[in-house]
Design a protein that fits this description.
156 residues, mainly alpha, Arc Repressor Mutant, subunit A, 3-stranded antiparallel beta sheet, 6 helices, 3 strands, 11% strand
Amino acid sequence: MMTSQADFLETMENWSSLYFFQTLTDFFNYLKHSELSLLQAYALTHLFFKGPIKISELCEHMMVSPGAASQMVDRLEKLEMVARTADPKDRRVRKIIVLDKGKKFVQENFAFSQSWLSEIPANIDSEQADQITAVLSMLIQSSGKNNQTNIENKEN
């Protein structure tokens, strides 16, 4: 049986909605028990994946003023999650790096937000798991958005 493009897209949208809603719900549940605001957690996560970066790059990405970004980084520094360091290529430039406590927060939050996925294998057989793995690998490659590394192996 040949799946139409419309059926394929509908299935992808349904999976995407389920994944987004469940993961975001778990993300917020984890965040409720932390010391961070939503914007601080977002900034820390962005720095984890894209850092070290300059404060101006953080401003641009988050669409906030330099003052707001600086205050956010100040708060994360006080919590010992990030630090401002001199760029080795240009000592006048300061970059924000994620410290061990910040890395731990992102990794734990990610694991908590993704924990619901561990329930799926109980409902499928090994052949289906192989098929899903192959298809998801193809989707990741074809999307061109696979530049995010595995969170457990992420090194800043």
